[in-house]
Amino acid sequence: MDKFVELKIHGKPDQFFLVSYRIIDDSQKIVEGGEGSLPACPELIATIKDWRAAYNATVLLPRIIEKNPNIVKNSSDINHAQLTNQLKKNLNNWLSSPEFLPTKDKLMAGLNRSQVVLVGIDVNDPDLKYAPWHLWSFSSIFLSLIMPS
Question: Which helix (H) or strand (E) holds 44?
Fold first, then answer.
């Protein structure tokens, strides 16, 4: 591994998020760091919840229905590809917001496409933990993406 990026996204989906990042080299020295913000993301959270409900209805249906009778029961009516595409779109729109762009640009400036970069993303919102971070267009330059538990 040439570099490790630690990205922390903390806040509330109906307000805003503070973002901090650190770039750590292979000798574990912090070579870059910064802070920024992301806007509220209620639409993204709603899409994550819809996507999770569809997944649960399809994969975990028998156990889920017993615990939550309000969940979607007919998984054949669910368009998984459409939900996944909408989730990807909402995630990338949020992470391409004008508020986050300066932070994203600084982060990109500290990385090189020829390097192996490991990314750790720490979020405090329980719904954002289920975001498909690997679908973030920014992460396409990285060979590895790791989510801490």
Answer: helix 42-59
Residue 51 to residue 80: CA distance in whole angstroms: 8
- C-alpha span between 146 and 135 (Å, rounded): 13
Mean pLDDT, residues 42-71 = 76
pTM over 0.85? The answer is: no
- Which residues constitute the domain of residue 9? 3-146
Domain count along the chain: 1
Please list, in sequence order, all residues whose beta carbon lies within 8 angstroms of the beta carbon of residue 87, skipping any fewer than 6 positions away: 44, 47, 48, 51, 131, 132, 135
CA distance 84 to 47: 9
Residue 125 · residue 48 · CB < 8 Å? no
